[in-house]
Please model this.
Amino acid sequence: MSRLFFALWPDEASRSLLAEVAEKLPAGLGKHVPVQKLHLTLVFLGQVDDTVRDGLIEDANAIAVPPFAIEFTHSGWWPRAEVAWLAPDHIPAELPPLVQRLQDLPWARQIEVDRRPYAPHLTVARKVRRRPPALPFQPIRWEIREFCLVESTTGQAGSEYRILRRWALKS
Ligand code: 2AM
Model:
């Protein structure tokens, strides 16, 4: 079994820009997500057995969504989840179909996934228990060329992520 999710993983340039914004959070307000772990979750799968994982990887080969860009424009906070995040004002037209296709894969294999409306957000800090100030920043444009399947394990330093597979976006 492994704990899995589909995600978008920032390239180095976008990652540093996103991390720079995260640095603007006042000290003591929570725990920054380490720069190498910044990502945008597409679909969280939870615990999946190895045979199903291999099947999902096979099925994902058929996904054809063209490359697109996301522009992060504002920060926010979810008090119950205790996370501070960055998000786009405008959801690119290609993103909901990609998420939909990725939700359909586990669904077809009787794996329940969150079907609430997808709210794209990139978590920059956890355990944020008080409302952070809005973070001032210039829009960050991230060109998305691939999506990936990631395994999450819990170690002493919190969650560790390992990219199991990447798929290029294609028309
Ligand atoms: P978060 O950033 O909003 O916390 C790996 O844990 C990724 O999957 C994280 O980005 C996290 O989103 C998301 N995630 C973790 N547990 C989840 C759950 N139970 N439901 C939906 N998403 C989850």
Q: What stands out?
A: Strands lie at 2-8, 31-32, 40-48, 68-78, 83-88, 122-126, 140-144, 146-155, 158-168. The chain has one domain: 2-168. The domain at 2-168 is CATH 3.90.1140.10 (Cyclic Phosphodiesterase; Chain: A,). The helical segments are 12-22, 50-60, 95-108.
